Structures are given as structure tokens and as C-alpha cells.
Amino acid sequence: MKSTVLRAVLTRSLLVSSVLAASVLVGQAYAKTLVYCSEANPETFNPAIGIADSTMDAAAKTIFNRLVEFKPGTTEVGPALAESWDVSPDGKTYTFHLRHGVKFQSNEHFAPTRDFDADDVLYTFNRQRDANNPYHKLGGGAYEYFNALGMGTLIDKIDKVDDHTVRFTLTAANVTFLAGLALDYLSILSLEQTEKMVAAGTPDLIDSQPVGTGPFVLQAYVPDSQVRYAANKDYWRGAPKIDTLVFAITPEPTTRVERIKANECQVAAPPPPSAVADLRADPDISVLDLKGQNIGILGFNVEHPPLGDVNVRTALAKAIDRKAIVEAVYAGAGTVSGSVVPPAQLGAVTDAGIDYDPEGAKKLLKEAGHESGLKISLWAMPVSRPYNPNAKRMAEMIQADWAKVGVHTEIVSFEWGEYLKRTAAGEQDAFLLGGSSDNGDPDNMLSYLLSCDGVKGGSNRSRWCDKDFEKLLDEGRVGADQKERAAIYGKAQAILKAEVPVAPIAHSMVAIPIRKSVLNYVLDPFGRQNFAAVDMAE
Fold it and tell me: Which helix (H) or strand (E) holds 437?
């Protein structure tokens, strides 16, 4: 995303001040504004080429829709742009019947001449899966989610049956396919806008000023300040109750706390755990809790010597006191993780973490020829995330733990978008990251973080590819029996414990503070933000 382009073209009236009234009396009606204190800039406004939650909240959930979507507050898949679908007996063919009369949004550069139809579905998927597609290289041509989750190898072909019917044929039956289609990165894009912007020589506008079918229309964006939206009055589910939505970009968690307490925002991204009790005591604020389906990890780039040696990786994992880290960083809102797979998910085990054993770490390092003098970089995220509320503090504690076993560590960080880009390219030695599940299935987290496809796509920042682990992932996607799938994922987690491409650190509780003037807010089980149905008390 070109911020210089955005700064030049989005010059309409903005909220320079962060203080906004929740509603303004206009005649006899209220024009309602809701401000959300978000944690970071979106990387882009095209979900297909983004990966961060900040992108999906600011783009996918506001501007776009998917073929199918999770019903609010649940992990159950329901209709969206596809109003119904049929599945063949062998589980390999899905036929989607598309909704009629769904309109794409307009902006100052583009006005649609037709409604949403099958051509937009084919464009959205084929742009990502086909390197020969004329639009594949737009926006850099990096489709991390699509590649990491194996969609390219899973989909054999996509056929347009008619303007409102699309048929997907898979290479194999896959029990995760339907839920996979509900993920934010598969938001349906406008083929017509792409054609016109490319023809006009302004392809950057596809990603910086998109049009979707969703509840809000992007009006303006100023990096490090705010994103502003207007209600989509033609939204197919009905116009939102709020007229204006503002994402006030507020990376510092303590500042978000101050702003929501002052009613400068009405909903905020997760606060620091230490501030939750104070927020609960505020009579005007509710704090909604979610046992997060997430994982914070310490990862090792196996392509950087000596991290290709499993004994070195194991030693570094043994050297860190995860219990002390969780107590200091999560402040009662996290638990030491037993696995990469969150406890609430199918097949999760509790014994796949690496226990604290500094003497064992020293022994392994000595055997590997690194008794002293080992130097590695440790990359730390610059933003607070639900799965890691303070990566800088965590990195400092790991640095101190590693120093005790003779390892010298340089802590490295970059702006969030740059951090994701550079770690996807494999510049790091060790790194802190993690993720929140997108659909509640163990395949999602394991495939995204650790699959061989993820190495090519950039999501597997450990650059670790194991054939036995990959075989188990394939088996888990085919089987419909839950007990069999649980056993498969148990074996996969055993491989991760033995190979240590990542060291699981913690699962966290997610707390979302909202002002009591906010109505109809539903906590998302995956920690995302959706304001389509939210209202404000007058």
C-alpha cells in the first residue's frame, strides 16, 4: 500500500482531533458516530494481500463480504454472498448459489455499472491461485494466507455455471473447506473496478480505495492517525445503524485506556492486562472477556545457522522461563501454553511445550559446539496483540534468560507492516509472533504457522518443512471423524515438540472494553471487530 498515494488522494475533511461526540443532532435525527481505538495501521485495504488483524478489521469486516461468513459471535458458518450451497456426495464439489441484487460501493474514482455476480468470485480466487492471471501480480502478488492454507493445491478448478452459480471442484475432499471460505482474506473483490483502474493506469487505487459489498464505505485514511468510513446505505443486509465509523489508530495500549475512559473512543482494542481491573471499575464501561483461541510463540528461523540444529533450538527453548514471562507480560490474563494448538480446539495436547531447564540448555549448547559466544538476533513485534500484549518486555526477559546460558542476543524491531514483511522474507534469526485462530479448527493455526506451503507463502516464518508433519496435516483435512482427526493432530503436535521450530509461550484471555452507550456489540470468537450491526444509544 502506498501511503504517499493515500495521503495525496484522501484529503477530505478528517478528524484531526481524536475527540468525537457519539451523536450529533441534525434536525430531528441523530447522525451517529462510533470511534474504535485500533492498535495499528492496516497494511492495505485489500484483504487478499494482507495478513494482520488490523488489516482484516479495517478492510474485510468493514468494506467487504465473503461467500460464506461466521454467524456473529459463533464459529458456525452461514450464508453471505452465497445464499445457499450444495456439496457432492464425495465431498469434492461445492456449488454456490449467489445472492441477487447485491451492489458494489462507489467512490470518487469508480461507479459500478452492474451488481455482484459470478465473475467477481472467479476473479477473487483466480487472481490468487493462477500465476498467469492478468491481475495476479497486482499489489505485489503475494497472497500469504491463500498459499499458506493450501488453497492453491486444494482447488482443482472453478467454473461459472451462470451469472449467479459458481462450482468449485477440489482435488480431494476437505472438511475444512467451507469454514476456510469464511476467512477474511477471501473477501470478494470487484472485477469491474480492477479492470477500470488498470485501464486508467491507477492500479494502486484497487488496494488503497477499494469498493466492496460490505456495511461501510471507505472515505479517508491518514496513516498513524485514523481511518474514516460512512455507512453503506445500499448494504444488502440493511444499512448500519451508525452513520460514521472511525478507526482511531492508537498503538500504545495505555493511551487506548485513557481514550476510552475519556469517551474519545467507544470501543478499544485489548488494553494492557494491568489496566483491566480499573476499566471494570468504571461505571460507564463494560469489559467483555473471551478465552482467546490464540497462541504467542517464540519462533526459530531454521535457515539461519545454527538454528537449523534441533539441539540448539531445544536448548534455546529450555533456557526461557515461560512461567515467569507469562506472569510478567500477561499479568493474570494468560496461561503457559502446552501446545501451539489452543486448548479449546480439537486434539489440543498439554505436554508439547518445552519445560524450563537452564542446565539442560547449557548441556545441549555445549554438545552442539556453542558453549559460549553464540550470538543471535531476536525480533520483537512493535505492537500489542491479544496473543502477546508486550513483545518488547517478553524479548527483554528472553534476552536475560539466554544470557544466563551464554547466548548473546540483539533485540530487533520495525514498524508493524515492515516487521511482517521482513519476517515473511526470512531476515530474522529468532522472532516473537503468534496468531489468533480464524475458524476454530486446529488445521488453521498449524497450517498457517508451520506448513510447507507456508514457507513458500511467507506465513511459516520458521522456514521449517517436515514431510511427516505435512502428511498429518493432509490426513487431518480429509477425515470427517472427530476422534480420528484429534489423534492425527496429537501426532502432529508431538513432532513439533521434538523438532522445536517454534516454542509455544502462552494462550491469553482477550478483553475488549466498550462504552455502555454502545448497543448490539457482539464479541467475535476470533478477536476480530465487526461493527455492521452496532448501534449507539441516543
Answer: none
